[in-house]
Design a protein that fits this description.
Blueprint lengths: L7 H71 L4 H6 L3 H18 L2 E7 L5 E5 L7 H12 L3 E6 L3 E11 L2 E11 L1 H11 L2 E6 L10 E2 L4 E4 L3 H8 L5 E2 L18 E6 L2 E8 L9 E8 L1 H51 L3 H7 L4 H10 L1
Antiparallel strand pairs: 1-2, 1-5, 3-4, 4-5, 6-8, 6-12, 7-9, 10-11, 11-12
Helix pairs in contact: 1-5, 1-7, 7-8
């Protein structure tokens, strides 16, 4: 009588094949998922480097536009009726009389916070406005008279003022200089409108803003975007900007870029990075761009989740297909291994039974025997 042959050994072979095949598929899926995430990370780093480059270029263009605007306003002020004659004669009373009616319009409609007139010897003649531009006004006027070209300076105290000194030329001779100062609100708002990124202006203490290890300490002069962004900037007090950029595809930091700080507040994610200030006096102030990257984080989470789900689905389907392919082959091997000892003992009927043939095939086999 046919003795039942243990099948655990053959079943374990099947399990081992499935196990090692599953491991191979898991490693392959993990490798492809890792490569996909690496490519996504490289694309994000490239996008970040491009964003920093665009931000620096945009800031540079905005300051150039503001410089040209202040220079045009300086020429406009010089061409007001009676201004050149008063400047030529260094007559303070005439200068106050001819310029005073225009000050309100320049202050309210053109955003000028201070206008000062200096003689060719850099002596102050008259000033309008309450904004404090410090001692740099006189030195700036002296430099403009000496160079016979406009000079610029960014002064940040209670607030940031961008100052321009325009030399006044009369018949080939320098008769003085006009110093104009305006706030940075136009630059900040234009930057926000054109880039979609908020901006904070922070006065630094200690080392210059361009040096490594700059501390985010000091006075927060202005923040666009409201109270949320203001509290976000205040929470950074004491942190350092280390002049380290996101890594490029070669794994090296990009020179000239600044550290990127990413913060989470509630359900929102924010990215902060410094934007260079391309004007004299800008080394004591930090322009900090603040981007809301919640959508970017959500896209990354979705990409990771989709990659893992796709990898798991491929793994299950591959193992199921492998099992279906192995099932019939392993069954035939098991039957053959069961029948071989019986054939060696001459137990042919039992050997036939080991193959689990249908009854019709068994009768035909016996008829032939």
């Amino acid at each position: 009588m046919l003795k039942p042959h243990p099948r655990a050994w053959f079943f374990s072979i099947r399990l081992r094949i499935l196990f090692f095949a599953g491991l191979a598929l898991v490693f392959a899926t993990a490798a492809f998922t890792w490569l996909a995430l690496e490519q996504l990370d490289e694309r994000q780093n490239s996008a970040l480097i491009e964003q920093q480059g665009r931000s620096s270029e945009l800031t540079n263009r905005l300051f150039q536009q503001q410089s040209a605007r202040l220079q045009s306003l300086g020429t406009l002020v010089a061409d007001l009726p009676g201004v050149r004659a008063a400047m030529r004669g260094a007559n303070v009373a005439d200068l106050e009389r001819v310029f005073d009616p225009f000050w309100s319009d320049l202050n309210l409609n053109h955003g000028l916070d201070r206008v000062a007139f200096f003689g060719p010897d850099s002596r102050s003649l008259a000033e309008w406005g309450m904004a404090d531009i410090g001692a740099h006004a006189q030195s700036l006027a002296r430099a403009a008279v000496k160079a016979e070209s406009p000079q610029y300076w960014l002064e940040c105290r209670v607030r940031c003022l961008y100052t321009t000194a325009v030399p006044l030329v009369e018949r080939g001779h320098i008769v003085g200089a006009i110093v104009l100062a305006t706030g940075l609100q136009d630059i900040v708002l234009d930057y926000r409108r054109l880039s979609g990124v908020e901006m904070a202006v922070i006065e630094t203490t200690g080392m210059a803003a361009g040096e490594p290890g700059t501390q985010l300490s000091g006075k927060v002069l202005s923040v666009s975007g409201g109270k949320v962004y203001e509290s976000l900037v205040h929470s950074l007090s004491g942190q350092r900007l280390q002049s380290t950029a996101p890594k490029s595809g070669s794994g090296q930091s990009q020179a000239g870029e600044e550290q990127v700080i990413e913060l989470k507040r509630g359900e929102r994610h924010y990215r902060l990075f410094r934007v260079a200030v391309p004007v004299p006096g800008g080394d004591r102030v930090i322009f900090l761009a603040i981007a809301d990257i919640t959508a970017e984080w959500r896209d990354m989470d979705n990409a990771v989740r989709d990659s893992l789900f796709l990898g798991a689905a491929i793994l299950v389907l591959a193992l199921g297909l492998l099992y279906l392919l192995l099932r019939s082959t392993m069954n035939r091997l098991r039957q053959a291994m069961t029948a071989l000892p019986l054939l060696g003992e001459g137990r042919y009927d039992d050997a036939r039974g080991a193959f689990l043939l249908p009854a019709q095939h068994t009768k035909i086999g016996r008829a032939h025997v």
